[in-house]
Design a protein that fits this description.
Blueprint: H1 2-10, H2 12-19, H3 26-34, E1 43-47, H4 55-58, E2 64-69, H5 72-81, E3 89-93, E4 107-112, H6 122-135, E5 136-148, H7 149-155, H8 166-182, H9 188-192, E6 196-200, E7 209-213, H10 215-222, E8 226-233, E9 239-240, H11 243-248, E10 253-260
Parallel strand pairs: 1-2, 1-4, 2-3, 4-5, 5-7
Antiparallel strand pairs: 5-10, 6-7, 8-9, 8-10
Helix pairs in contact: 2-5
């Protein structure tokens, strides 16, 4: 899975696509405002920085900014797009699974946006969480987005593709057929009874294999390394505050804001 997705992200067309992105997601705007009184004192790590979509918004407000990506072509784009200036801004080629370049307790705020963590396998994902806890300061923030398996259930059901607009129905059914074709070994019943699945979804014309997870299972994964976890809707940016809201949420992805736990001697 890692090598497959890595080759996709290295392709020139994908690099060009990410180099043209400029806008923040609604939940990212919310967090930018929520922590407005803290940014000037923060050292930030932007994991999976891509073409620098988030750089222009965050690097100007934080005290120190480090953007990393495992695709050297993406880092080259960032370095060209954001040349050296008076701001403390650095870009490096780094694998989030092993961030040995950084010492323990280095960052106040760590971002992994645009579902970048979903391009990794299950075990790699857990390794990233451990690395984030290691390089993040206790009490610091980790903010990331991830695909929602509950939203995928709707995409795997053909009845949900029917619209009052015939053209929309046609397009929806074509995309539904392609989704089912590229995931022939996965059934709707399997998705309904799984906590997470690897799906070849429509991202970049069905070229990526992506990790989809139920929100409650995501909370379970995070509890060992993080606390004070808050969840935000991708569509509205609003916080999801009740278990009922979370259990029925069908956004295609969600944002998670976490506090990094105090370090212990176990595993460190």
């Amino acid at each position: 899975m890692f090598e497959h997705n890595y080759q996709v992200y290295m392709s020139s067309s994908i690099v060009q696509h990410y180099s043209q992105l400029r806008q923040l997601q609604p939940a990212e705007h919310i967090i930018l405002d929520l922590l407005r009184n803290e940014w000037s004192r923060m050292k930030m790590l932007d994991i999976g920085v891509g073409g620098g979509r988030t750089t222009q918004h965050f690097s100007r407000v934080v005290q120190e900014y480090v953007g990393i990506d495992y695709a050297k072509e993406m880092i080259a784009v960032c370095q060209k797009r954001f040349p050296p200036s008076s701001q403390s801004r650095v870009f490096e080629v780094v694998d989030a699974r092993d961030m040995k370049q950084f010492q323990d307790n280095s960052f106040d705020f760590i971002l992994f946006s645009f579902n970048g963590i979903d391009s990794l396998s299950h075990l790699d994902r857990l390794q990233v969480f451990q690395e984030v806890r290691r390089v993040g300061k206790p009490g610091g923030y980790f903010f990331f987005s991830s695909h929602n398996l509950q939203g995928l259930e709707r995409q795997f059901t053909w009845q949900n593709q029917i619209s009052l607009n015939p053209l929309n129905t046609y397009v929806n059914l074509i995309m539904f057929a392609l989704l089912r074709f590229f995931n022939r070994s996965i059934s709707l019943q399997q998705i309904k009874h799984s906590n997470y699945e690897i799906i070849q979804d429509e991202s970049h014309n069905f070229r990526l294999k992506q990790y989809y997870i139920r929100p409650q299972e995501q909370l379970n994964q995070l509890e060992a390394d993080f606390d004070n976890i808050r969840i935000y809707s991708w569509k509205s940016g609003l916080e999801i505050t009740t278990q009922r809201e979370l259990s029925v949420n069908a956004d295609m992805w969600l944002y998670y804001l976490c506090k990094i736990k105090e370090k212990t001697s176990i595993g460190f």
